[in-house]
From TrEMBL:
Keyword terms of this UniProt record: DNA-binding, Transcription, Transcription regulation
Keyword field contains DNA-binding: yes
Statement: the UniProt record of this protein carries the keyword Hydrolase: no
Species of origin: Streptomyces antibioticus
SUPFAM superfamilies the record matches: Winged helix' DNA-binding domain
Protein name per Swiss-Prot or TrEMBL: Helix-turn-helix transcriptional regulator
PROSITE patterns reported for this sequence: HTH_HXLR
GO MF, one example: DNA binding
Pfam families per the UniProt record, alphabetical: HxlR
Superkingdom of source: Bacteria
InterPro entries from the UniProt entry: HTH_HxlR, WH-like_DNA-bd_sf, WH_DNA-bd_sf
Domain HTH hxlR-type: 21-119
């Protein structure tokens, strides 16, 4: 019995738990630190590169560029280059990217909303380990 069948879901043609499944790479792009934050920032609307870099505090220019390329390749982000001087490039979510980002933001909001519990658990854990 597959994991999807055990969970009562319909059988899908891809299995992220399989080492060679292409969905694993996309999951890594979406759930990695910069991918998740980039998708979340773009959910708010179209942004230029430097606007996005300011919104995703701490990301380097190189990492943001690599992240955007991966998300664009996966069909989650659309890059629109305007033939102006200087060139203007805007990034926005595709319909698929918007769906994925919406689900990711639900998880982000859940984590943000439960941080008091997380911090308390960390404190208990650290105190218990320090007592050993």
């Amino acid at each position: 019995m597959s994991s999807a069948e055990r969970a009562g879901e319909r059988e899908l043609p891809y299995d992220v738990f399989a080492k060679v499944c292409p969905s694993r790479g996309t999951l890594e792009h979406v759930t990695g630190r910069w991918g998740g934050l980039t998708l979340g920032a773009l959910y708010e609307g179209s942004l230029r590169f430097n606007e996005l870099r300011r919104r995703v505090d701490g990301v380097s220019e190189k990492m943001l560029s690599q992240t955007l390329h991966a998300l664009e390749r996966d069909g989650l982000v659309h890059r629109e280059a305007q033939p102006t001087n200087p060139p203007r490039v805007d990034y926005e979510l595709t319909p698929l990217g918007r769906e994925v980002a919406g689900r990711l933001l639900s998880l982000i909001h859940c984590v943000e909303g439960r941080m008091d519990e997380v911090l308390a658990a960390r404190e208990r854990y650290d105190a218990a380990r320090g007592a050993l």
